[in-house]
Amino acid sequence: MLKHLAVSTALQLGISIAKIADPNDVRALIRRMHPVTTEHELVRIGCSGDGGYLVPNDLDGITACFSPGVDNRATFEETLIARDIPCHLADASVNFNPIKDETKSTFLKKYIGVLNNDLFITLDKWIDTFDPSGGDLLLQMDIEGAEWQALLNISEKNLARFRIIIVELHDMERLMDKHAFQVIKAVMDRLLEKFYIVHNHPNNYGGLVTAGDIEIPRVHELTLLRRDRVENAMPATRFPHLLDRTNAEDRQDILLPPIWHG
Q1: Is 213 exposed, middle or buried (0-12, 13-18, 19+ CB in 10 A)?
Q2: Domain ranges, residue 240
Q3: Sign (positive/negative) of CA torsion 143, 165, 43, 86?
Q4: CATH of the domain at 150
Q5: Quick check: 155 and 190 in contact, CB under 8 A?
C-alpha cells in the first residue's frame, strides 16, 4: 500500500516509476536529519517573519557572515552587524547592497556557482577573497535550489570554517526521485559529518508533499552547528519552537511532520 502511494505521488511529481527512490532509503535519511538540542539555546536573528532565522547562541568570535541570496531587506545581516559581525552579500539579481552601513558589509553582484566568471563565483573564491583570516564563519544561504551544487563544490577547508550554517533547502520533494535522492543524500552526508542539525523549520511558501507515510515539506530552513562546538546533544522534542514564525502569513502554516523529528 505504501509503495503504491509513493508511486502515485511520484507520478504526480513527474517522476517515472523506474526512477522512484526506495522509501526505506528516504526514511533512513530523514531519521539522520532529526534536529537535536545542545547547550547553546536558539535565538531569533532578523525579522519576525520571512528572512528571520533561529540560530544557536554561539556567535562570539565569528569573524564574518557570508550571505548569498539577497532580498530588499537584510534584517538578519543588520542584526549581525550590530553585533560587530561583518557581512558579505552576493546576488546577481540585485543591483545594490540593501545594508546601509557599507563599512561593515560588502555586496557582490554575482550568483554562487561552480565556476568563476562574470556572472558566477564559487563559495571558495568568495571566502578566500573577502575573509582569508582562517577564523570561524557563519553561512546564511537562500539561493533557490543552487545550494545543492554549492555545498557539494565547496572545499573541505572552507566548509570546516563555518561554525553555523543556515540554509534553505529547496525541492525537497525530489527525495522521491532516485537520482535526485543521491544528490540530496551526498550533500547531507557532507554536512552531517561535520554538523548537527539544531533546527528545522518548514517554509510554508512551498507546501507539503505526501507519499504514503512520508510527508515532505518542499522547502526546509535548516540551522546547523559544527560538531566541535557541542558537548551535549539530545533529540529535540518541541515542535514548532517557541520562536518559530510563519513565512507567508497569507498561506496555511506547515508544522514539521513527525517523521522529521521522531
Answers
A1: middle
A2: 2-260
A3: negative
A4: 3.40.50
A5: no
The count of structural domains within the chain is: 1
- DSSP code of 79? H
Amino acid at 175: L
Contact 243, 43 (CB under 8 A): yes
Q: From CA 48, how far away is CA 56, in angstroms rounded?
A: 17
In the chain, at which residue ranges do the beta strands (DSSP E only) sit?
Answer: 36-37, 42-45, 53-56, 64-68, 87-90, 105-108, 111-112, 120-121, 137-141, 162-169, 195-202, 208-211, 214-217, 220-226, 234-235
- Compute the C-alpha angle 37/59/165, nearest 5°: 65
DSSP letters, 161-199, are HEEEEEEEEP-GGGGGBHHHHHHHHHHHHHHHHHEEEEE
How far apart, in whole angstroms, are the C-alpha atoms of residue 169 and residue 63?
25
Nearest one of 174, 165, 124, 123 to 145, comparing CA atoms:
174
> pLDDT band at 35, cuts 50/70/90?
very high
> Rounded distance, CA 257 to CA 31, Å?
12
Is this model's pTM higher than 0.90 or not?
A: yes
CA 65 to chain centre: 14
**Mean pLDDT, to the nearest integer, of 87-116?**
95
Q: What is the distance, to the nearest Å, from the Cα of residue 40 to the centroid of all Cα atoms in its chain? A: 19
